[in-house]
Amino acid sequence: MTSPASALPDNPACVINCTWYDENGTPQTLALDNISDVLASDAKGFVWVGLYEPDDAVLEKMQEEFNLHDLAIEDTRKAHQRPKIETYGNSLFVVVHTAQVLDERIRYGETHAFLGPRFLLTVRHGASLSYAPVRARLEREPGLLAMGPSFCLYSVLDAVVDNYLPITSSFSDTLDLLEKDIFSEDYKRRTVIRLYELRRELNKMRLAVAPLQDALAQLQRNQAQLVNEEVRLYLRDVQDHAARINDAIDTLREMLGTALSVNLSLVTLAQGETVKRLGAWAALLAAPTLITSWYGMNFTGMPELAGRYAYPLLIVGISVTCVVLYRLFKRSGWL
Predict the structure, then answer these.
(1) Cut 0.85: pTM above it
(2) What is the H or E stretch that residue 99 is in?
(3) Who is most buried in 10, 65, 147, 211, counting CB within 10 A?
(4) HEC profile for 123-160?
């Protein structure tokens, strides 16, 4: 067998890792050109290649080395796929959506994984955290690597799902911070805009997480002998986590929808109270205006026009009318 560590590999920049793991879980850096040679040998172990936004030349090289199907490579090249599991001969093609918080906004990407009897190829597109910590953890526990590439696939899927947890928690924390503004009677445009943005982001996240549950269930039921029975138990745990995250997203979406409705209702009620007060004060001003407008007409036959106490009585009458109206409006809650 050609020694994978015989020379320092000169791999393209998009190749994050290209490693051969022997039966004891010992890693050895591998050159892309040596992949097919290692897989063709009788040595026990598997190859794990990690790519980030590879170009067409590297994808064609991976297709040649791993004997991948044209349709799967075409899907990976376009990188706009829904979460799914597809079987192509002796390999599985897995697509999941990833999420990452960048500049206080959630950015989405995709991870495409090719699983074979002795290899795992992961291709990341867009916003996605590196799987280097996943590999480092597995390399510290060679017994886990002994379960083969399917366990590495589980570890990647587990990292993808777990990465959604802090994002949903941040949504919940943001909603708690906005609670004071939500129940405020004053209309704040930024509060409504922020609530709408949160709901929009949750809708996008749901589109990523909801199909992931079906993909994980399909992966567990897959009849291909590429996933160990023990690994299927681990995949069931990942599916449970995805289901809980999906439920949390649905709950937050409902809470945000309710918060929007409550905020708009409170603002509408506050505006109604303002209109009532304005109407009451308008009525108080209308009574003296009406009375004085009568006496402002140029007619000589007006009642009490020539009376000695007509002017004081008029003032008293207007004052009594305003006081009566004020008490009526105060009692009814308009003032």
Answers:
(1) no
(2) strand 91-102
(3) 65
(4) EEEECCCCCHHHHHHHHHCHHHHCCCHHHHHHHHHHHH
